[in-house]
Amino acid sequence: MHADSDVRTELDLSTYEVDSHVAQLVPREMARRFHLIAVARENGALLVAMDDPLDVIATDTVAANTGYDVRPVKADADTILTAIEKFYGDEIDIEKSIQSIVEVEVETSMSIGGEAEQLSIEPNDAPVIRLVNLILLQAIQEGASDIHIEPRDKDLAVRLRVDGLLREILPPPKKMQWAITSRIKILAGLNIAERRLPQDGSCRVRIMGREVDIRVSMIPTSHGEKVVMRILDKTNLKTDLSELGFDEASLTLIKNAISAPHGMILLTGPTGSGKTTTLYSALSYINSPDKNIMTVEDPVEYELEGVNQVQAKPSIGLDFSAALRSFLRQDPDVILVGEIRDLETASIAIKAAQTGHLVFSTLHTNDATSTIDRLLNMGAEPYLICTSLNLVIAQRLVRKICKDCCEEYDPDPLLLKRFRKALPEATDTVFKRGAGCPKCSGSGYKGRMALYELFPVTRAVRELVLSGKTGEAVRDIALSDGMKPLLVNGMEKVREGSTTIDEVLSVASG
Q: Mean per-residue pLDDT for 333-356?
């Protein structure tokens, strides 16, 4: 086989015109890790500019990821970094950032907000420290809510939950598994010698000027300990009701309900549907120096200024019902209980709402009107429910269309039929979706928004429940009173061009 005289051995990236579509074939994390960038396709192979063209691991990794034969060419390291920043957007270079944040301030404690141990991390610390910081930084940069570190038979997977979905990132070496879990245990104040039992802890880190609380859960699996880190980024917490996506009429209804002197407001929805954010926003709206606001939560997710927050500890007898009983002796004006799980908690919350207190809580039901059935099934008396319950809000989260790759399209006829059924008057809707781009990691979505179903407990509803009618009868009268179902609220967001029909149907039916 003769040598090709045109084969490149070195490339000047400062003058070479890189194909942006080709550059995106290699994931951003991979390009930064190996200091390389794909620049062109030549004769069916991928031309890759590299700082070290002899790095076999790098070329094999790129080849396996892209499916192309890789032709490495030498390029200046600085021009490679410049090209990476140009073609992968304006995100901070994670590898370079790690060098500047290895002295990241870390506070470690078993419960966030308690006495914390200060740890100093120096630039010459072990690689595992830099690696764990790298994972944390990437997760926070991408707006992840959770980090999953999962041991497998032959490798170690790292996945980030972004906008509700898990996505795998470049994994660390399997040989670092024990070191990584030990490092995380140290941060979270856990026992590094215990590998047989589940453990839970927490820590607080300051990265890029942002203070972030992290809850750590560890559980033993057949291949080692799996780690899940829940990221509670205070900078992402919206405590302004007007920013949560309510229309004007709904916002007015909510503000009236939470400004009442007494009564109960319940939020329903699955785990991770944004109920805590909505509750905190409601508390922030009514928070003032003349009100004594007390909460019992499991866990306390964010610290609210001026609010007395209690961490539930069922293991020592401090559960929701015990805390509620104590609250009533603390002269409260407003009470938030994390969740109504049993009749005892429900009874105390209802009693508090009837004796001059405003009570907030959550419940797990499929829709807003099912809340009454759920309370009745727990054993609560109908007349007590009717005299205490003011408003129920059902909530779900859907992904928003990425603004950087938004395009118009014609939806599938079956999806279009579902849309028309929910909004028959919306005949001139221009449907949009995300085509997929580097900004949204090819998903077409970036960020999330809430859908709501507001169920005010009106006189007509109370009379119906007291007469012994529940279930569909309650829902029918609520709809006739003007309640907007989750599905309709979602399809209105589709009409606005904020999300897609598929997304709405994934969380709402009807």
A: 94
Structure tokens at 475: 């829902």
pLDDT value of residue 336 = 96
C-alpha–C-alpha distance, residues 109 and 156, integer Å: 27
Distance (Å, whole) CA 503 – CA 497: 12
Q: Is the dihedral of CA 252, 254, 255, 259 positive or negative?
A: positive
Convert the pLDDT of each residue in 414-457 to its tens digit: 999 999 999 999 888 999 999 888 778 788 999 899 999 999 99
Strand partners, 232: 213
CB 265 within 8 A of CB 391: yes
Number of H helices, E strands in the chain: 18, 20
Burial class (CB in 10 A: 0-12, 13-18, 19+), 162: buried
Give the residue from 305, 351, 343, 300 showing the smallest Cα distance to 327.
Answer: 351
Reported pTM:
0.71
Closest CA to 178 of 162, 161, 157, 192: 192
Tokens of 502: 């598929």
Look at 306 and 170; give whichever has higher pLDDT. 306
Residue 215 bridge partners (DSSP) = 202, 230
360-380 residue pLDDT tens: 999 999 899 999 999 999 999
Partner residues linked to 161 by β-bridges:
146, 166
**C-beta neighbour count of 180 within 10 angstroms:** 21
